[in-house]
Amino acid sequence: MKIATWNVNSLKVRLPHVLDWLAAQQPDVLCLQELKCDNAAFPAAELASAGWHAAVNGQKTYNGVALLSRQRAEDVQADLPGMSDDPQKRLIAATFGGVRIISAYFPNGQALDSDKFAYKMDWLKALEDWLRAELARHPRLVLAGDFNIAPTDADAHESWPPGTIHVSAPERAAFARLLDLGLQDAFRLFAQPEKSWSWWDYRMGAFRRNIGLRIDHLLVSDALRPSCTACTIDRPPRALERPSDHAPVVLELA
DNA sequence: ATGGCGGCTCGCAGCCGA
Q1: Which nucleotide is closest, CA of A38 to its C1'?
Q2: Local structure of A249: helix, strand or coil
Q3: pLDDT single digits (tens) A62-109
Q4: Taking the C1' atom of B16, which residue's CA lies nearest?
Q5: What residues have CB less than 8 Å from A250, skipping those under 6 apart?
Q6: Most CB contacts within 10 A, which of A2, A70, A91, A215?
Q7: How many of the other CB atoms lie within 10 Å of CB of A78?
């Protein structure tokens, strides 16, 4: 089983890249984030023509997540139960072949003294609380998405200011609490090149200079860990014309 | 590295992302 995650930064703009990537990579499930379109504007027909089902939790302008798959999604859930008043569309979960797969777009947080950072930490707490129950219901589980957290110093270019957004101690502690629920960072189950990033700023030639962060992750439950055979960051899409600023991350399960 | 890019919007400037 092949599961991937990709923050596309506007599905409308990136649809040609996504269709090409799906055709070439043939994943079982692709978790998308930052659709920036509502459910009515979601390009379901174009995807269906290529043979892909979609479970969508869309939002205009910001956020928006989806699960694309060859098999139809089962037991679809949108949003975090603990954030029922939150209008931001950041999570969708469904079951595929007995594996629970979550596509999540974690809040950015902007800066540690921002209201958006408080929201990020609240969201992380709600995720942790829900995930504990979700893991009990679904031992075979993958939490995939744009976490907006670089979990260790090896996951951020040295130029990223220590202690700031994406690398701060409270964010990393929240990430560690997710692992404590019985999850593994699939990327780190395998030997990887140094300076492996999943996001590069559009500005200042960051991709060409390989200045970035590893903030897109696939966390696998303990029950799935023995099945993991590979996890890689697929850089070439970041080099396309008019790319997303994120690259896909791909997990292979035996 | 703090801006520079690129997406969005009852748009033509400002917000947001990371």
Answers
A1: B8
A2: strand
A3: 999 999 999 999 999 999 999 988 999 999 999 999 999 999 999 999
A4: A62
A5: A2, A3, A4, A25, A27, A230, A231, A232, A233, A234
A6: A91
A7: 16
